[in-house]
Design goal:
The complex is a heterotrimer of chains A (360), B (170) and C (192).
Chain A lengths: L1 H6 L1 H38 L19 H8 L3 H11 L10 H18 L8 E2 L2 E2 L8 H22 L3 H32 L4 H11 L2 H4 L1 H14 L11 H4 L9 H26 L15 H26 L7 H31 L1
Helix pairs in contact in A: 2-4, 2-12, 2-13, 4-12, 5-6, 5-12, 6-7, 7-10, 7-14, 10-12, 10-14, 12-13
Chain B lengths: L1 H23 L7 H21 L3 H25 L2 H6 L4 H24 L8 H5 L2 H11 L1 H26 L1
Helix pairs in contact in B: 1-2, 2-3
Chain C lengths: L11 H4 L2 H19 L4 H4 L20 E3 L14 H5 L5 E4 L19 E5 L8 H5 L5 E3 L14 E2 L1 H8 L7 H13 L7
Antiparallel strand pairs in C: 1-4, 2-3, 3-5
Classes of the chains: A mainly alpha (360), B mainly alpha (170), C alpha+beta (192).
Amino acid sequence: MLDQLISDPTVRFVAFGTLKILVVFGVLMTFVAYAVLVERKLSALIQDRVGPNRTAPPLVLKIPVLGKLLQGWGIFQPMADGVKFFLKEDFTPDYVRKVYFWIAPAITVIPALLTIAVIPFGSRLGGEPMVIADLNVGILYTFGIVSLGVYGIVLAGWSSNSKYPFLGGIRSSAQMISYELAMGMSVVSVVLVTGDLNLGKIVEFQAAHGWLVFYQPLAFVIFLVSAFAETNRLPFDLPESESELVGGYHTEYSSMKFALFFMGEYANMIASAAMMVTLFFGGWSLPFVGAPAGTWLGGLLHIGIFLAKMIVLVLVFIWVRWMLPRFRYDQLMDLGWRRFIPLALANIVVTALVLAALKS
Amino acid sequence: MPAFTDLLFFAFAGLTLLFGFLCVANPLSRNPVTSAMFLVLTIVSMAGLFVLLHAFFLAAVQILVYAGAVMVLFLFVIMLLDLGEEERRKLNRVALVSGSAAVIGLAVVLGRALLAAKPMAKAGAVAADGDTGALGRILFQSYLLPFEILSILLLVAMVGVILLSKKESR
Amino acid sequence: MTKVVDRKPLTFYERTYLPTLLEGLKVTARHFMRSVKGGNAALQLGDGYYPEVPWQVAEGYRGAPYLVRDQDGNTKCVSCQLCEFVCPPKAIRITPPGADGVPADRPNAEKMPREFEINMLRCIFCGLCQEVCPEEAIFLQKHYSLTGLTREEMIYDKERLLQLGGVHAGIQKWKHKLEEAREQDTFPVKTD
């Protein structure tokens, strides 16, 4: 009976699909929570400070050495933050447009989570491919979903009905449309090399032929910078620039609604790091650990490799935040429209020519 | 599971119609931003219909281009306009008559076309597996001329916009 | 001898933004490495951080303004209200005794405040009250951690300000006046 049930493809699909969604969601949320901690700790170290080192649940400090050490690293800080966000007063100003004000945080988070669905975070684990949805048009799906992310910010800015959030919303819509173009064009040259839109196939191509970052360094640079702009991270965090727009689009938000914007930003950051690993750094493959793993150990190793690469890229995201000053708005537009788009176009043409020459 | 896909089809089709209606004639709100957001939802549920037809590429492009870029620009413009005036505006009788005439005309044309068409035993090779390669081949071989003409049209529009916007500054 | 520094236009390499990027990378990496090795000031403290180990307040720090007494335990403030008028955020409120109010608690002083309040939530610790005081009766002291559970609690009254302020060993203007006056009383006797 049970064997029959397991061998039924529909049951298998639903069961493994649900399991993968739950696990990936759990891991992603943990990553988001700890990305905040890492950001705070890393920024503290860069700025000669100490960072969060005081939070600890009551009994942990009783553990001889480890307790003190964990407290010092701030391991429990994300939990305290989460509890704080839930307990804070959820204040809705009187003058906002209620419906949009309430759904905007959700619209910000959902696309960030949906992007993860097509990313192959491992090769195979017990015969099951390690990707939630193995789409033939994976890259296009990602871009489509990412482009929906702007609605959350724009609506938050507009529905807040006050000037700073509004300016933040306007800025973000212009900025995200501009950099989506450069980002999409940089990926076109990648697709030209691999000849497939399926992210799993792209990773397999890289496992066989080497990482794409060596084939397409210019595309990678454009993609990286555009990713910073798309996720509203410094040096392109104009929609929320604290020094001019108070808090930008989330000025009027508090409590869990604010936390959702925060989670959205970090989830976006992790998603774009995962995307970059998939597109340019060979996904789960290492130059010497090749092809899809047959064993459980190999499968787990591949997932580990993927996560390690992703973490490194997230660290780069965080590091850059404390390294560069914020761009001016016209500089941002200039960089996007007058430098990156022509460069990406030229890159496409050159790549196509080289590929044609190699073929003939 | 044909039943399940049928169910999905009716769900998406119903949602498309509902959102489309709410986009043009929302009884609760005459706010242009609300209309724009319902248009986005219409586009997304249409993308769902494309997925059911196995046209994954079309679905993705639909969301990417229309929902992700065009509608954001719409929203951008609407937000910069004065919304109060739009909300106060009364229904225009001439617009009502001409609009419904256009809808009826379009419905007649569509209905005739649908009735004339014979149900196909099998969808084309492109639609069957949503292969982007095949789609590209068709687009750049069989339909190369219309494709290029469309590109030229867009280019003309772009040049026109630049010309119009530059004129005032001089 | 003057030296003319010519302003060179940025080279192409500089305009690519790359050198700035590398410089930023270097600076942040240097600080990061130093912090990891335990080189920064906070980590060097060794025995702990702020709430457990009190912060060493530097000389000249402008903390909370308190009223002070002189060596004999007298209130130095004469309720001239100069500080009240100079206070930029209007944190000080003085209630003078009025024409037929309570006389000063020490001989020869003109008057003293019936009530003297500083709203520590409004105070910006600028030090203008200390600057303007002709009696040297108010001083910005080293307290930097002012906390309270209510707004009312953060309005410090005269008793509290005097108690927190302590004794200031400065000039005793009125003591000299008193001595002078007493000398006046015994003036004719003073024959040497």
